[in-house]
Specification:
The protein is an alpha/beta fold and about 190 residues long. Helix content is about 15%, strand content about 30%. It has four helices and 13 strands. The strands form four sheets. The protein has a five-stranded mixed β-sheet. A four-stranded mixed β-sheet has the order 1-2-4-3, with helices on one face.
């Protein structure tokens, strides 16, 4: 009988055994190209974790379910520099994601929750489908319909301030028929 080679990959039998039987907390940065598989394994393991992953995961369809179900939230800060396998410093857009309680983690002070009419025009616009899109961490306090936001508002804690994700897929706005950067749609909770 042939034995499967041990590669050290997170999905090797030995790695899964260690995760299941020995690990209390998992802390790692999986390859961004395999992050979906990794998140599924770690989150479904029920273990506490700290994961460095792409900053846009919170607006990516494959990950949104974890934020909707409050299984993960943004960690304390972002990570922009990494050493590659050649020990060269490279830039990437990463962020800590976790299911641990972190003191002073939400960066509420970075959110600008104000009435829609007070948001500067350059940070609010309606796309070709009439969906409101806000930028620069502005959040309209008096708007009860769904609206699009970037990853930063999620990472800064908007989902802990009475807002929820209302669409399980990323939302891609179009302006004059041209595709813009993807968003996630949120709305105030408990709208009557």
């Amino acid at each position: 009988m042939l034995q499967k080679a041990i590669t050290g990959s997170f999905d090797d039998d030995l790695s899964l055994k260690i995760l299941k039987e020995e690990a209390d907390i998992v802390c790692t940065n999986p390859p961004f190209s395999r992050a979906i598989d990794y998140w599924d394994i770690v989150i479904n393991s029920g273990k506490k974790f700290l994961i460095i992953s792409n900053i846009t995961n919170c607006i990516n369809t494959a990950y949104i379910k974890y934020f909707i179900n409050k299984q993960v939230w943004g960690g304390y800060n972002s990570v922009y520099w990494y050493l590659n396998y050649k020990k060269e410093l490279i830039r990437a857009t990463g962020n800590w994601f976790t299911n641990l309680e972190v003191i002073n983690r939400p960066q509420y002070k970075r959110l600008k929750i104000i009435p829609l009419e007070e948001i500067p025009e350059k940070y609010k616009k309606f796309d070709d489908d009439g969906m409101l899109i806000v930028d620069n961490s502005y959040i309209p306090s008096n708007y009860n319909k769904p609206f699009g936001i970037s990853a930063n508002a999620i990472l800064n804690g908007i989902l802990e301030l009475g807002y929820k994700i209302v669409y399980e897929k990323r939302y891609t706005p179009y302006y004059d028929g041209k595709e813009a950067f993807a968003r996630v749609l949120i709305q105030k909770e408990n709208i009557e």
